[in-house]
């Protein structure tokens, strides 16, 4: 099934199911939470998964042409990215990974990474297990 056919089916389903005033509020009910191709904003994170009761963190990241996310060691969890638009390079401890629309890239926990956007900029979807929130706890908890 081609992407346009899938997108058309999803849009049709969303119109008949979700846009009909039946948007669920129960966190255990699947629902539409955003549009990966239309999310806009200043460079950086232009969309974030919002439901409070969730087990995942997800973002859409936009880098202008030539911009970068400096080299760093990733978090204590695996991250999966899907390139939505543009191009770029993911520099790793081993070899560079070319980034182009449709590419799915796995970033293992604690892996070294640097993102550099190409001439058309870079837009990607990032998803990983939710990071534990910061909070005050009693000693021993």
Summarize the structure.
11% of the residues lie in helices and 41% in strands. It is mainly β.
Helical run tally: 1
User: What's the helix-strand series?
Assistant: HEEEEEEE
Number of E-state strands: 7
Q: How is the main sheet built?
A: 7 strands, antiparallel
**Amount of beta strand:** 35-45%
Question: Fraction of residues in helices?
Answer: 10-25%
**Cα-to-Cα separation, first versus last residue:** 49 Å
Q: Which spans have pLDDT < 50 for at least 5 consecutive residues?
A: 12-22
Give Rg in angstroms.
17 Å
How are the secondary structure elements laid out?
Blueprint: H1 3-18, E1 44-48, E2 56-63, E3 68-73, E4 79-92, E5 97-99, E6 104-107, E7 112-129
Antiparallel strand pairs: 1-2, 2-7, 3-7, 4-5, 4-6, 4-7
Structural commentary:
With 141 residues, the chain is mostly beta strands. The chain has 1 helix and 7 strands. It has one helix at 3-18; strands at 44-48, 56-63, 68-73, 79-92, 97-99, 104-107, 112-129. Strands 1, 2, 3, 4, 5, 6 and 7 form a 7-stranded antiparallel sheet that branches. The longest helix has 16 residues, at 3-18. It is globular.
List descriptors.
141 residues; mainly beta; 7 strands
